[in-house]
Specification:
The complex is a heterodimer of chains A (123) and B (376). Chain A is α+β, with helices and mostly antiparallel strands. Chain A contains four helices and nine strands. Chain A has one domain: OB fold (Dihydrolipoamide Acetyltransferase, E2P), CATH 2.40.50.100. In chain A, the strands form two sheets. Chain A has a six-stranded antiparallel sheet with strand order 1-2-3-9-8-5. By secondary structure, chain B is of the alpha+beta class. Among the domains of chain B are: 149 residues, Gyrase A, domain 2, CATH 3.30.1360.120; 87 residues, Elongation Factor Tu (Ef-tu), domain 3, CATH 2.40.30. In chain B, strands 11-12-13-14-10-4-15 form a seven-stranded mixed sheet. Chain B has a six-stranded antiparallel barrel with strand order 16-19-18-17-20-21. In chain B, strands 6-7-8-5-9 form a five-stranded antiparallel sheet, with helices on one face. In chain B, a hairpin with a 2-residue loop joins strand 20 and strand 21. Chain B is globular and about 65 Å long. Classes of the chains: A alpha+beta (123), B alpha+beta (376). At the A-B interface, strand 4 and strand 6 of A face helix 2 and helix 7 of B.
Chain lengths: 123, 376
């Protein structure tokens, strides 16, 4: 599990871990908790071009549907097949094994710090 | 009636839910537990052992008087005078146009006493309608006791053994192993009166326990203690919704509403047109809905993407229906949905699709319920 204090966040409740020009993206524990038990995950294929802010995937729980927004412009280099096969990883380890996609980006937009995100969700 | 619906009410069991790690959702102005961690685990617990639910937001209305039975025959769609003491009956409260004001469970507690349980969101419309309809029945009183009564449901195959093992839950007027489905028993919990109904909203065997709010927390703890080792866990409204959906049970505001005739919802049998005398909504129900009015059906799909409330049902390019409830069924492993669709399409057997956010997924019409527990 990543150190959540070093991650960056979006207002759509995604976390972004930056390593060189690769961003690993997942949804936060707050978002996973709000969704309830995740039972279906659809992710963009490796090689897909992403436009920041576009809906690129879906995370469904028994009771609702969450959308995955692309937090950066770039190209998907890996989608987490383990999560597609076992969506409960989003609940059990949202910041770790429950990661969703890795994106090769050219420029990083301004994202929220852990402190800013914590304020946003009021926790 | 000058009461305005409160907006942020909490159950008498609220502190227990907070201590148990519940997350909460607003339901009809109440902050009620949606889950205690995993709604799937809670769902499976009810199917395989037991779950305990706090549904204290439900409304309880005591109807009494010498003409109480005749009054309810007039006020409700069913023939309540036909049930015996301690029997329960599912019924509907209709308006003059035949629309559904609420669906209810009515327990007969004696010759002249009935206990009407309404949905939380319909408490005030039901109380107002019953009070207005009682005007022509002198001596009948309609007493809204919702603020004083808590409701705990224990549901699942282990529920009977849990109630039997619950400390201080005694004095049953009918032994639990003899209590039939949709019957109730008087009991006491440490000296406090409890009404125990063999009723529920999950498709499993189970019980609903009505007790004064001041003793509800102790009863909850006693039930949980009795359930240790059985797999009993607290369960929230998220699992309650998937359980009732699998069991094909309608939810007011989704499958039922003022614009729904009972027959459209498959509830024609709940309206007793053979009973003598008039009842509210009778003329409209006898006329029936317009020809071609949509009817409630069960739909199943393959894969794991579920149709959700509001999603269109289509054939070719034509929209022929709308989903009212849908989820990936935790028990069955495939998506299930209830939907109102044009009856001609159901009869024609034309291929139906659910439009899941732009993707058309083939759907099969099935007979409700989706899930039925094995006979025991």
């Amino acid at each position: 599990m990543a150190d959540v204090t070093t991650l960056q966040y979006t207002a759509e409740h995604e976390w972004v871990l930056v390593d060189g020009d690769i961003a690993t993206v997942g949804i936060t524990a707050y978002a996973a908790d709000k969704l309830g038990d995740v039972v279906f995950v659809e992710l963009p294929q490796s090689g897909s071009a992403l436009a920041e802010g576009a809906i690129v995937g879906e995370i469904e729980s028994t009771k609702s549907v969450g959308e995955l927004f692309a937090p950066v412009n770039g190209e998907v280099v890996e989608a987490n097949e383990a999560v597609v096969n076992d969506p409960s990883l989003v609940n059990s380890d949202p910041f770790g094994e429950g990661w969703l996609i890795k994106v090769k980006f050219t420029e990083l937009p301004t994202l929220l710090s852990h402190t800013e995100y914590t304020v946003l969700v009021g926790e | 009636m000058t009461d305005t619906p409160p907006t942020d009410r909490t159950s008498p069991l609220h502190d227990i839910h907070v201590a148990g790690g519940a997350s909460f959702t607003d339901f009809a102005g109440w902050q009620m537990p949606v889950s205690y961690g995993s709604d799937l685990a809670e769902h499976h617990a009810v199917r395989t052992s037991a779950g305990i639910f706090d549904i204290s937001h439900m409304a309880e209305i005591l109807v009494s008087g010498a003409d109480a039975a005749a009054f309810l025959d007039y006020a409700l769609a069913g023939k309540l005078s036909a049930i015996g003491a301690f029997q329960a009956k599912y019924s509907l409260l209709l308006d003059e146009t035949g629309g559904i004001v609420d669906d209810l469970v009515v327990y007969r507690l004696g010759d002249e006493v009935f206990f009407v349980v309404a949905n939380a969101g319909n408490r005030y419309p039901v109380v107002e309608a019953l009070t207005a309809r009682a005007a022509s029945f002198p001596g009948v009183t309609v007493d809204d006791q919702s603020d004083d009564i808590a409701l705990i449901a224990v549901q699942g195959p282990a529920s009977r053994s849990i109630l039997e093992a619950t400390a201080d839950l005694t004095d049953f007027s009918v032994a639990l192993d003899e209590l039939k489905y949709y019957w109730s028993s008087d009991a006491t919990f440490d000296g406090t009166a409890v009404l125990v109904g063999r009723t529920g909203y999950t498709g499993e065997d189970g019980f609903e326990l009505y007790i004064s709010t001041g003793r509800a927390a102790e009863l909850w703890q006693a039930l949980v203690t009795a359930g240790e080792g059985t797999g009993l866990i607290p369960a929230g409204l998220a699992s309650r919704d998937t359980l009732r959906l699998e069991a094909g049970m309608p939810l007011y505001g989704h499958e039922l509403g003022l614009d729904t005739f009972p027959v459209q919802a498959g509830l024609g049998r709940v309206v007793n047109l053979r009973k003598e005398g008039d009842f509210v909504g009778r003329a409209s129900v006898e006329t029936g809905p317009p020809a071609g009015a949509r009817v409630l059906v069960g739909l199943t799909t393959e894969g794991r993407r579920a149709g959700r409330a509001g999603y269109p049902v289509v054939t070719g390019d034509a929209e022929v229906g709308t989903i009212t409830s849908g989820a990936l069924s935790p028990t069955l492993g495939y998506p299930v949905a209830m939907a109102y669709v044009d009856p001609a399409v159901v009869e024609s057997g034309d291929p139906l699709f659910i439009d899941v956010r732009g993707t058309k997924i083939p759907a099969t019409v099935v007979t409700l319920p989706f899930y039925k527990r094995a006979a025991n």
